[in-house]
Amino acid sequence: MESLALAAHAGRWATAVTGIRGKAAESLDLGGYEPVPEVQGLTDTWWRGKDSLVAPYRGEADGLDAPRCLEAHVYSGLDEWGLHGG
Length: 86
Prior knowledge:
By secondary structure, this protein is of the alpha+beta class. It has one domain (2-84). It has helices at residues 2-13, 22-26, 59-63, 80-84, and strands at 16-21, 34-40, 45-48, 52-57, 71-76. The protein has a 5-stranded antiparallel β-sheet with strand order 1-5-4-3-2. Strand 2 and strand 3 form a beta hairpin. It starts with a helix and ends with a helix. The model has no long low-confidence stretch (mean pLDDT 84).
């Protein structure tokens, strides 16, 4: 539930949302990002950067052994409110 709420919040406040799939999503460099504790799951964990949130979705890719199903959404252009809320 928290992941859905964060996706709605981030989507509202981001200046851009980019969807990335497959190998491109696998190669995302999350160095310098920190995990968002409220949305850490077995397969899906959100990451917070300086002005962006990244949500890699690994469920189908891992569960079905189908790496091409890996997807990530990058919410960029976020200010402090967009990154943390109230």
